[in-house]
Design brief:
It is a single chain. With about 325 residues, the chain is α+β, with helices and mostly antiparallel strands. The chain is built from four helices and 21 strands. The strands form four sheets. A nine-stranded mixed beta sheet has the order 1-4-17-6-15-18-19-21-20. The longest helix has 20 residues, at about 260-275. It comes from Streptomyces lincolnensis.
């Protein structure tokens, strides 16, 4: 990349978006722009110690602040925005996780209503060693300490929804949003279908690491310094968010019940094979059935998210999404160099 256009954004406390759609853009950018962003954690930085309970220091629904949105010049419905993650780096030496009453996969919730009491609010503060790339778990009820590798990711990336909708930043759907998949790490390209003029791209919800499914509903939540390159693919539709890494193509689906999220991701992968790799529909269905990996992203949000991923080495040598991932990988390498 020669002389890249770089826009640095460090939002102040009142300058975050809390929804996808319905928020005015913070900037207009041209395709090819490099965004150097600070994103706050899902608690807006208010959970800083084991005494800081979410119910006391946070105000619902003001959770999951997003940096953006960015109006992408020339983006129209029917186009696709490509977001390449150059780097995702924790901005602090600590991160927070917690149990939240009536939230998570292994507790009563507002929709899974039972007589049993909610789980207690408990906070864990994780110490991050950014030089050694580790995150330290300290048990609350014993002297157990376990050091885990960091695997920074963004839980939330998306554009404005279709049909004049405004969606909470806590919700994943066809526009992207709070998908909470660990696949959204540095080195990948995320493809998002454009629903409104300018797309209105936002991202946030950094995780130092997260297990598949985000079972308790909260990852190792931390502020991030993130660099992305934003491109635009004109006239190419992407009905559900897709991710491309150096090794896999990855489809996502978000819905409830869980099996519908699974079906969406699998169907999107089949249609991807048909559109870009030359398969007939039934051949794609058979091939995907025997090769797909299907990790869960989240089973705790307003919609659940499933992932369908397939190894590139098993696919015909064809170009997908006009080869933009490879070009952005080269641009990212030049940017780092």
């Amino acid at each position: 990349m020669n002389d890249p256009r770089i826009l640095t954004v460090r939002p102040g406390p009142g300058e975050y978006a809390w929804t996808f759609g319905g928020a005015p853009p913070v900037a207009r950018i041209a395709p090819g722009t490099v965004l150097d962003l600070y994103t706050e954690d899902c608690f807006a930085g208010r959970v800083r110690s084991e005494k800081d309970l979410v119910s006391e220091v946070c105000e619902f629904p003001f959770l999951n602040p997003q940096t953006g949105p960015f109006h992408i010049e020339g983006a129209e419905p029917g186009d696709t925005v490509a977001v390449h993650f150059v780097s995702i780096e924790p901005a602090r030496d600590w991160a927070a996780s917690t149990t939240v009453p009536l939230f998570g996969a292994l507790t009563s919730t507002h929709t899974t209503a039972t007589l049993q009491p909610p789980l207690p609010e408990t906070v864990w503060i994780w110490q991050l060693d950014r030089s050694r790339r580790t995150a330290l778990f300290r048990a609350r009820d014993s002297d157990i300490e376990i050091e885990l590798p960091m695997d920074p990711m963004h839980g939330t990336v998306g554009v404005a929804p279709a049909n004049l909708e405004v969606r909470s930043a806590l919700v994943p759907d066809a526009h992207g949003g709070n998908m909470d998949t660990p696949e959204m790490r540095a080195g990948v390209t995320c493809y998002l279908g454009v629903n409104v003029e300018g797309a209105l791209l936002s991202l946030g919800d950094g995780h130092a690491r997260q297990g598949e499914g985000e079972t308790c509903g909260v990852a190792v939540e931390c502020a991030m310094n993130t660099v992305v390159i934003v491109e635009l693919l004109k006239g190419l539709a992407t009905p559900w968010p897709r991710i491309e890494s150096d090794t896999h193509i990855i489809s996502t689906g978000s819905a409830r019940p869980l099996e519908d999220a699974f079906r969406i991701s699998q169907l999107d992968l089949v249609r991807w094979l048909v559109r870009d790799y030359g398969f007939g529909e039934l051949d794609a269905y058979q091939f995907a059935t025997q090769t797909v990996e299907s990790p869960l992203a989240n089973v705790c949000d307003t919609n659940y998210t499933c992932v369908a991923k397939l190894r590139k080495e098993w696919l015909p040598a064809r170009e997908t999404h006009r080869g933009v991932h490879a070009r952005l990988r080269e641009a990212a390498a030049a940017l780092r160099g």
